Amino acid sequence: MRKVFIDTGGDTCPKKKSKEVMEALIRSIRRAGLEGEVQVIARGCFGLCNIAPNMYVEPEGVWYSRFTLKDVPVIVRQHLRNNRLVKRLVHYPDRLVPAKRKRRTPRDGSARVKRNRSR
Ligand code: FES
Fold it and tell me: Does residue 103 sit within a domain?
């Protein structure tokens, strides 16, 4: 399940309509039929007050900042439903969690040995 964290408890974000953003996010998630797939979690200050409001999406590790109420349905439709980043609103693009890579070694870290069965 995806989790979306929104700061509604700090000093700055509530002044920048973070509670309205959270309500709009919940409405948009319901409209998109994603209630069972996305959990919205209110929390306190992220320490990013100068670029508020802020939203953090797990497991991708995406920060959205400096967005407006109009951007919320776009984030829901584009990111949460269609798995495409809203690049113009992404903060810390260099910290994004890369897409799943194919595992090259077994989980235990041992190297795979190919046996020559031609003998
Ligand atoms: S009050 Fe929201 S990041 Fe600090």
Answer: no
Q: Pick from 82, 71, 84, 93: which is nearest to 18 by CA?
A: 71
Nearest Cα residue to atom 1 of ligand 1? 10
The domain that contains 88 carries what CATH number?
Answer: 3.40.30.10
> What are the residues facing 57 on neighbouring strands?
4, 62
In the reported structure, the alpha carbon of residue 52 is separated from the centroid of ligand 1 by a whole-number distance in angstroms of: 6
Vertex 52: Cα angle to 46 and 27 (nearest 5): 95
Count of structural domains, the chain: 1
Q: Give the tens place of pLDDT for each residue, 5-52.
A: 999 988 889 998 999 999 999 999 999 999 999 999 999 999 999 999
The pTM of this model reads: 0.76
- Which pLDDT value is given to residue 56? 94
User: Is the C-beta atom of 8 inside 6 A of ligand 1?
Assistant: no
Asked if residue 101 is part of any domain, the answer here is no
